[in-house]
Design brief:
Blueprint (H helix, E strand, L loop, with lengths): L3 H16 L3 H13 L1 H32 L1 H23 L15 H13 L2 H10 L11 H35 L3 H24 L5
Helix pairs in contact: 1-7, 2-3, 2-7, 3-4, 3-5, 3-6, 3-7, 4-6, 4-8
């Protein structure tokens, strides 16, 4: 269903993006430091549930767009590439670094559902799904719903793995991750460059024909 080469590139790109500490990672490490590793892991899975909901919504939306016309899907793909480049440019020229997240101690059930709602109600996360996933969908293979859903769930699964690593390591390196300093300043250029490169490659690569 998915081209193995394209899927491999997707996994690599997704891992690179997920491994860059962002607001969600800092929130997870803060939870883990404040209430222990279990709280950090619970927040990871809560966030994953919300992301899974967005993955299903993205698959349904892209399938509906393709059903209307191939041109509409192409427009969606290039708009997504442009959005990724916009994220990269904005991050490169941003003077705002991530700040430590202050959280209150809460029950694990509350932490789980809070993570879910934060992911579902974050419009930037939804836009990212709609921008990132179409770059790896091959229309010529058909099954747009299945391709998009598989990519989305793969992204969620990889996110669970990378976020769980941060949650488990937070006890020893969490305070270092939370500090404002060289990590955050360097991260701006790394993450911005990755977004920009991904968007440019997507915009000029086009669909693969089989």
């Amino acid at each position: 269903m998915l081209d193995p080469h394209s899927f491999g590139l997707f996994v690599i790109a997704a891992l690179v993006l997920l491994l860059i500490p962002g607001p969600s990672v800092l929130y997870i490490t803060t939870r883990s430091i404040d209430q222990g590793r279990m709280a950090g892991l619970v927040s990871v899975f809560g966030n994953a549930l919300g992301s899974g909901i967005l993955a299903v919504a993205a698959a349904a939306g892209l399938s509906a767009i393709l059903a209307s016309s191939d041109v509409a899907f192409s427009v969606m793909k290039y708009l997504g590439a442009a959005y990724l480049m916009y994220l990269g440019i904005r991050r490169l020229f941003s003077n705002d670094d991530y700040t430590p997240t202050v959280v209150q101690r809460k029950r694990l059930s509350h932490i789980f559902f809070q993570g879910t709602f934060v992911a579902v109600l974050n419009p930037k996360t939804a836009l990212f799904f709609l921008a990132f996933l179409p770059q790896f969908v091959d229309v010529s293979r058909g099954y747009i719903w299945e391709q998009t859903l598989l990519l989305g769930l793969t992204l969620v699964g990889l996110g669970i793995c990378t976020d769980s690593i941060y949650a488990l390591l937070a006890g020893t390196v969490g305070n270092w991750l939370k500090r404002r300093g060289a990590l955050q300043r360097g991260q701006r250029y790394v993450s911005g460059g990755i977004y920009l490169a991904l968007g440019m490659v997507s915009a000029f690569s086009g669909y693969r024909k089989h």
